[in-house]
Amino acid sequence: MFREEHGRAVAVLVRVFGDIDIAEDAVQEAFALACQRWPQTGVPGSPAGWIITTARNRAIDRLRRESSRAERHRQAEWLLAQQRGQTAEPEGPVRDDRLRLIFTCCHPALAQPAQVALTLKLLGGLQTHEIARAFLVSESTMAQRLVRAKGKIRDAGIPYRVPSEADLPDRLGSVLAALYLIFNEGYAASGGDSHVRVDLCDEAIRLARLVCALMPDEHEATGLLALMLLAHARRLARTTPSGDLVLLADQDRSLWDRELISEGQSLVRACLRANLPGPHQVQAAINAVHADAQSYEQTDWPQILALYDQLFAVSPSPVVALNRAVAVAEVRGPDAALELLDDLDLDRYQRYHAIRADLLRRLDRTIEAKDAYRVAIALTDNPSERRFLQRRIRALTS
Amino acid sequence: MKQYLMSVYHRDVTESAPAPADIEQIMADVGAVNDELRAGGAWVFAGGLYPSSTATVLTLTDGEVLVTDGPFLEGKEHIGGIWVIEAPDLDAALCWGRKAARACRIPVEVRPFQEEARD
To answer: What residues of chain B lie within 8 A of the CB of A18, using their CB?
Structure first.
């Protein structure tokens, strides 16, 4: 409840006061007050309303205390106009304040790490030290990142508004990319001290649900949510109890979360009906096909290859080509896939070498396979990935 | 209303300078941007600068102002021209910045001016 209401309250106050620090401090004070008073007075009928009203009053009090005479005069005028309902509202349909806030946090003028940090802090209600730990930086580094980002919003005049129709596709892309980054950060964390890291996957999914609820006609947003749900469904099967990686081919599918899969697949079907495909939607569809199969061997690989053809058409990156090659290996054999890999320029990418190694292994080119695994190991600093690759080398040796 | 500085940087080395015909086209495009800025009420000031070799630096040292030849910054790139524009927020300023970047064919930096302090 806290995180939902925190995000909503901050969003409303940012709109009202046009200042993130004032909004954050006021909401924090209101929550502190709630913790003090509600155990005695009982939870009010509308907790969210109480928080927002209390925060608003706190902020007004603070502004009155801290302003210079000229500022107080300006604020008094502005507050009066507020009460008369005269403050200008941007044109367009009434939007949830959280939507405004998400677009502000993910403004392209902010560096992506800053976008991600702000989104988690303001909408996620996470604390600075939690975000710092999640992204493996020191708390002071993360605190500075947030201060700089808020400073840029204030000083460069990044507006608090939902972008115009014309700008919306690019700006939404920014938002979705930030959410996908948060999800992938959580997805990649495996074993080790992941139990002390906030579940970024849960947070990314929650925020993606919010964006989808507020923008139900944006199919790429729906596609991203579906993609996250279908990937998250596999989390219990992805690692062993000791935190080692388990490949899709070897996962115990009975550990997959069938509810998440069902939800993800129904979202994919909705996207298919809309027939306005984009990269996230196609990736979600690929995951849905995998989720349909009882086993790796029963996977509809021709269907997956067809989807990768579609994905490559809308998103022609070397990484997509690499993943497509994996599907080619299943449909046309490892030789065909290896040929495709030779055309790719992914020499610094660990997964490229790991996939190459696996294809070579399947062709009994053992020495080359081991070499490729070694290159992959040299390129990764993720301990569980490294352990996985070393196991593959040992398996070849025995 | 806020004010923003839009600036472009030029490499000193002339090998990478555009051909004369291209320069004409660029100047025409920049002129068109200036016309749009004026028509939109956003134009405050704009101008191209002579190369960095024409710059002079004044430095206060021990109570005296010393005069030196050449730009302040060492390096191969220096400011080539500036716009000062008025815009309600960064989105509007970036909209102008995009047009400037297309016209100049080189990167444009958009930076806000500090507001004047009140009483």
So the answer is: none
